[in-house]
Amino acid sequence: MTPFEYRAVSGLGLPALLAAFGIFGKKLARGVQGSWRRSDFYLGIEFTLAAVSAALINILDALLKPSSATKALERGMLLGNFGVSILGLFLFMFVLTMHQDYENEKNIDAARKKELKALAGVCNAIGFGMLVAGIALMAD
Question: Which residues constitute the domain of residue 116?
């Protein structure tokens, strides 16, 4: 398996699969009478946390390797992952505030369009972008 294939499977495939389980989990948690809601597909929160998790795993993986010497490339990767972790936590809080401001199943017309743009568009893009950043900084 090439490094790109490894990153695609472990960094994109697995989070996407878990996101799909999350979508079904949200619906099932509402019980038999719970129908599908558009909020089931707002994955910005989950993807942002997955990105922070990936960055922290990358950091631990690099620091806990058996060889004690850290290569220059790994130092850059470590700094990048620290950046993704910190930025990811701030963006996680931002995404949460966006959900507080815009998420409402009773929104209709213009308010619904604004909700979809903010949560399905901006928040999902932030979460997915952070996830891609975490993948890009994975140790080889």
Answer: 3-136
